[in-house]
């Protein structure tokens, strides 16, 4: 599915947090959203996935008008991995991931064999099979993050939005999570803090500053030392990372 978010504007109180931002994700593209703390990435994403109503703008997933469509129709197509995923009741990992099946079910319809198979597959992909019967609340931050991804995979969305999905994760799992998402081969819009990961996984990048799109293009076009220096107010030099062969970054104040 393709995502078009056009002319998004979000005001919270008197402050304009997102100012006329448009982003476009082509079919099966992995698109990154970068920018400094507080520049409006999460707010923009929330306004796209209906968690925060924008004052202006329209969002389309193919021909589905996301902001005007019922929740169920949107969640049959759009999966979201947000930044904070705390719950206060203790479901098992399997029960948590099973929640991903909800948009595909009728009210009170029970879980069938196909649902269990889909959940099993999602747990396998995220290396969580052995955690299946553990309580979600007993997991570490990184394990919880993987459960949320597994839940979103079980939802079988045709498009995914991720808000800093590698928060809490050690380096190996950061790479794994982005690889798993990439392998889903669906359209993805992800806010990312790690610029090397963005360079490695994104087909296209939007850089935000002060609630606006400051630059957009391929990673090579956007992730230049000049742009990074302006975005983050630091000194930066790029080089070829000897391990990934992608763009590497050296930073300083
Ligand atoms: N409910 C709110 N009330 C007041 N200000 C808010 C609210 N939500 C967000 N903001 C402000 O909007 C700005 C943008 O926040 P947002 O979370 O979108 O930034 P971000 O780019 O995702 O940052 P980070 O990289 O730190 O996650 C920040 O200055 C934040 O304090």
Radius of gyration: 18 Å
- The helix/strand series, from N terminus to C terminus, equals EEEHEEHEHHHEHEHEEHHEE
Q: Calculate the mean pLDDT score and round it.
A: 94
Q: List the bound ligands.
A: adenosine-5'-triphosphate
Structural class: alpha/beta
For the termini, the CA-CA separation is: 41 Å
CATH superfamily: P-loop containing nucleotide triphosphate hydrolases
Q: What summary fits the major beta sheet?
A: 6 strands, mixed
Strand content: 25-35%
Brief overview, please?
This protein is of the alpha/beta class and 253 residues long.
Structure in words:
With 253 residues, the chain is an alpha/beta fold. The chain has one domain (3-221): Rossmann fold (3-Layer(aba) Sandwich), CATH 3.40.50.300. Helices cover 31% and strands 28% of the residues. The chain has nine helices and twelve strands. It has helices at residues 41-48, 71-75, 93-98, 113-125, 141-154, 171-183, 195-201, 219-222, 225-232, and strands at 3-12, 15-25, 30-34, 56-61, 64-65, 78-81, 159-163, 187-191, 204-209, 212-217, 235-240, 247-252. The strands form three sheets. A six-stranded mixed β-sheet has the order 6-7-8-3-9-10, sandwiched between helices. Helix 4 crosses helix 5 (141-154). The protein starts with a strand and ends with a strand. Residues 12, 17, 35, 37-43 line the site of adenosine-5'-triphosphate. This is ABC transporter ATP-binding protein.
């Amino acid at each position: 599915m393709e995502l078009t978010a056009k002319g998004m504007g979000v005001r919270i109180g008197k402050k304009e947090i997102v100012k006329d931002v448009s982003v476009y994700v082509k079919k099966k593209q992995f698109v990154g959203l970068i920018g400094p703390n507080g520049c409006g990435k999460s707010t923009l994403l929330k306004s796209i996935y209906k968690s925060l109503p924008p004052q202006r703008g329209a969002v389309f997933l193919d021909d589905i008008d996301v902001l005007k469509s019922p929740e169920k129709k949107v969640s049959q197509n759009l999966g979201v991995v947000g930044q904070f995923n705390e719950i206060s009741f203790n479901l098992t990992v399997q029960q948590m991931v099973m929640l991903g099946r909800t948009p595909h079910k009728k009210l009170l319809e029970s879980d069938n064999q196909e649902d269990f198979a889909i959940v099993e597959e999602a747990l396998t992909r995220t290396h969580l099979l052995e955690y299946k019967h553990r309580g979600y609340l007993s997991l570490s931050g990184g394990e919880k993050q993987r459960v949320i991804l597994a839940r979103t995979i079980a939802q079988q969305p045709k498009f995914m939005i991720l808000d800093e999905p590698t928060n809490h994760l050690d380096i190996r799992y950061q790479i794994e999570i982005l690889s798993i998402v990439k392998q889903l081969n669906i359209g993805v819009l992800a806010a990312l803090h790690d610029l090397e990961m963005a360079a490695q996984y994104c087909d296209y990048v939007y850089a935000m500053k002060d609630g606006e799109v400051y630059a957009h293009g391929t990673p090579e076009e956007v992730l230049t030392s000049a742009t990074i220096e302006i975005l983050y107010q630091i000194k930066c030099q790029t080089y070829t990372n000897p391990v990934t062969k992608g763009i590497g970054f050296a930073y300083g104040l």
